[in-house]
Amino acid sequence: MGEIQARMEGALARFVPPAHVAPARLHEAMRYAALEGGKRVRPLLAFAAGELVDAPLERLEVAAAAVELIHAYSLVHDDLPSMDNDVLRRGKPTVHVEYDEATALLVGDALQTLAFQLLAEHRVADDAAAQLEMVKLLAVAAGSRGMAGGQQIDLESTGKALALPELEFMHIHKTGALIRAAVLLGASCGKALAEAERTKLDRYAKALGLAFQVVDDLLDAEASTATLGKTAGKDSKQGKSTYVSLLGVHRTRELAQELRREAHGALEGLGARAARLSSLADFVVLRKF
């Protein structure tokens, strides 16, 4: 994990324009948002899935960076006053606090478009049709049928008590879609998987995407701001439904373990090549921040 995290830091530092290049303030803020922070869970998943298909590391680097740039843009916009109005992210002031709200909007826009630029200008698949499918996969995951749609549902749901299926539907889109994209993009960077293998990988990614959010809800309820690097207890203060508010802490912990077992079960039959994916399922569920 440490090697991949360090590799991704270097890759993102290369891909995001230097701060001295005009417009300097925008590029500086983009680097502030994308570099030196986060667990890089999505790149880790992309690299782990790439092991299943013997994907070249250079391809995985590009695909993982594209997903991480989408994730970084979403955090910048999520923290804006018009959204969650948060002042702390990854242990430092949010982009609109460090710079200004207009710059933060442009940072998100620019990081999003840079993600697709990377997938368009680097060879990450064996043929053009496969690469175009990768672009489509990321676009759907980030758009109205994925992350952006989930965020809209989240905004509409503030102050309302959601039923469990409604909460799950929201998080399948808001959080799960991009995690699924990270896994499937990594698996698209090498030799083609059999349909049955791809189905297993998809099941794994969906279970892990939900598990990630379930644990996030637990941490938001139990961990401190200093530990999380972002404002703790934010969801309850904003009147948002969470797995903890619906199920309680004990049942939420049980659900996280059930999803962990489901993720492990989805990998059965993929052999030693899936070992890192299996370990990442443990990491996501057992993490403390």
In short:
This protein is mostly helical. The chain contains 14 helices and two strands; from the N terminus they run H-H-H-H-E-E-H-H-H-H-H-H-H-H-H-H.
Structure description:
With 289 residues, the protein is an all-alpha fold. The chain has 14 helices and two strands. Strands 1-2 form a two-stranded antiparallel sheet. A hairpin with a 2-residue loop joins strand 1 and strand 2. Helix 4 (57-78) runs antiparallel to helix 6 (101-121), helix 9 (164-187) packs across helix 10 (195-222) and helix 10 (195-222) packs antiparallel against helix 13. The longest helix is centred in the C-terminal third of the chain and has 28 residues, at 195-222. The mean pLDDT is 95.
Question: Per DSSP, what share of the residues sits in E-state strands of 2 or more residues?
Answer: under 5%
How many helices? The count is: 14
The largest sheet, given as strand count, sense and whether it forms a barrel, is:
2 strands, antiparallel
Strands ordered across the widest β-sheet: 1-2
**What is the subunit arrangement here?**
single chain
Mean pLDDT: 95
- Looking at the structure, what is the overall shape? globular
Percentage of residues assigned to helices: over 70%
C-alpha Rg (nearest Å) = 18 Å
Element pattern in H and E? HHHHEEHHHHHHHHHH
Compute the number of strand runs: 2
Distance between the termini: 16 Å
- Secondary structure class reads mainly alpha
